[in-house]
Predict the structure.
Amino acid sequence: MNSFTKDQLYLHFIVFIWGFTAILGKFISIDALSLVFNRTALTSVAIAFYLISRNRGFTANAKELLFMWLCGVLIAVHWITFFGAIKIANVSITLAGVSTGALWSSVLSPVLTKTKFDITEIILGLIVMVGIGIVFYEKPNAAEIKELSYYGVVFSNFQLGLIIALFSAMLSASFSILNKQLVQRYPKPVQVTFWEITFAFISIVILSLLRGENPMNLWATKETDWIYISILALACTAYPFIKSVELLKRLSPFSVMLAINLEPVYGILLAAVFFGASESMSAQFYIGVFIILATVITNGIIKANKRIR
């Protein structure tokens, strides 16, 4: 097996692991805020041990630390809304919403980097909205459908979960754009991630204190939760990030983009295996997800061709 094939297999394995994070989020019984508090704490410690073992150090200047803190806040809120959407709706709906991240990047990148909008990306964004509309108004076969009323507007828990997942995707895209700028200025990605996740943890602690709550109450207490959170933090966060940093040096951005877009596919298939009836969606849902993913991949192909030209 040549090195390129090995890298591709490693990449898809990492994306498969990322797809598994949603499954663990549903298994873990604590609320989304507590879950992210525990995840960021363990991941930060794990990456710190990695840096110490490789003699990499933790150095960063004050200006960059402030920028890393901003990115850390985006990570924290992204993860909280991601797991919150899973607990409100289910894994399939959440991953359908989060799969729009690449299109959010196309919309937000010109705003955050002060570049021109691409008319092609705007058209593809409108097509994605059609897919989202199909998913939003579908009637799932899944169990535990509830109606929620906010200021006279009635949503199902699945619709509210999709809205939160779309917001989570927007935060993820914003983080990716800002993080790319940071890494270009400060080319030490593992150290950057250590500080960002550490600041995500610290931000949750500060939020708890501002709310007059004891942050120590956010620690998981059930043994099963600790097992799942440990897998989430170590196997599904620290390890894949460190490994992906190596792969990104050797694989093309297009190869990485195509693989990452399979994350919701892996996650939805895993959800059907693990949770059965609660993840049973109608044909309309899968049509909507197909439109979203096909549009995102088409956008990646167009970008790759432009880059080649």
Q: What stands out?
A: The chain has twelve helices and two strands. Residues 190 and 241 are 8 Å apart (CA to CA). Residues 3-308 form one domain. The chain has one domain: 3-308.
